[in-house]
Amino acid sequence: MYVLFRRKEKGNVTNILIANLAFSDILVGIFCLPFTAVYTIMDYWMFGRCLCKTTNFVMCASVTVSIMILALIALERHQLILHPTGWKPSVIQAYIAILLVWGVASLLAVPLVNAVDLTDGIHKNISNVLDSLADKSVCLEKWTSVQERRAYTVTILLLQYVVPLCFIICCYLRISVYLRRREGLLGRSYSHMRRINIMLGSMLGAFAICNLPLHIFNIIVEWNHQLISVCYHNLIFSLCHLLAMISTCINPVIYGLLNSNVKQEVKLLVERCVGRTQRRPKNPGRTRKASSCHQMWFSFAWFSKFRSWKKCVLRGSI
């Protein structure tokens, strides 16, 4: 985000959307990754009921925001390349779209927040095996009915994955076909557009690959849970959940590796932090002394020349 705001074209619609994508990734990194990692290792929830609901809300909302922002980026690229003289989203429209995306994502996460709560029933049932976990709580979903849970699972699958992914793929396929047909006419701009599309397509691929196992796991658990052994249920779920959250860490890496401007800004930032932008002399004392001696010698030489010139003038006048 720092690099995006430093760039001259920070008012660009694509940069605004990518900055919002980075913001949602930061929220996942702060509110989800640390707590989920500890929860996976300890096998019980130690952070209280409030954080149990907060982490699930942030995770659900951020995933929805990420895929919807990627869809908006695909739409913006589609209009910019295929219809350069037609309608293109403005900066104000981009901010309005971001607010709408966060509103829809928050509404989509509300049912999950209502269903998630702390419970200790699971550990009490196996207290004879794990005595240390008998009085510990876990953060689980407790739905009022199986039909309600399945309806929410299908809704999440469609809105968070299938529908936006199909829309984005259609946009980039049309862009790819258009660029191939006009490769000779576009000239230098073709390579620039192609590089940007590869970067955005890589971000989309990372999201699709990292979130696919979690959606498959949820579908299997809802309709044929016998396929997954009880002994490996929590382990598989934790791995799928962590993989889905890792996708938020991959986006900055992809954006940095495939964008030359970002590379340059990051390099300058690192050099500023290390202190290499202005190389200091190895022995500043000697340098100062030499410079002061040089100034004294220059002053003395100038004064000597002035005196000799004055004598010549006086002799000539006499």
UniProtKB/TrEMBL annotation:
Keyword Membrane: yes
Record membrane topology: Multi-pass membrane protein
Subcellular location as annotated: Membrane
Pfam families with a match to the protein in the record: 7tm_1 (PF00001)
Cited SUPFAM superfamilies: Family A G protein-coupled receptor-like
UniProt-listed InterPro entries: GPCR_Rhodpsn, GPCR_Rhodpsn_7TM, NPY_rcpt
Gene3D superfamilies: Rhodopsin 7-helix transmembrane proteins
Family to which this protein belongs: Belongs to the G-protein coupled receptor 1 family.
Domain G-protein coupled receptors family 1 profile: start-end pairs: 1-255
Keyword Chaperone carried by entry: no
Principal subcellular localisation of the protein: membrane
Keywords: G-protein coupled receptor, Membrane, Receptor, Transducer, Transmembrane, Transmembrane helix
Segments crossing the lipid bilayer: 21-42, 54-75, 95-113, 151-175, 196-216, 236-258
Domain of life: Eukaryota
Protein name stated in the entry: G-protein coupled receptors family 1 profile domain-containing protein
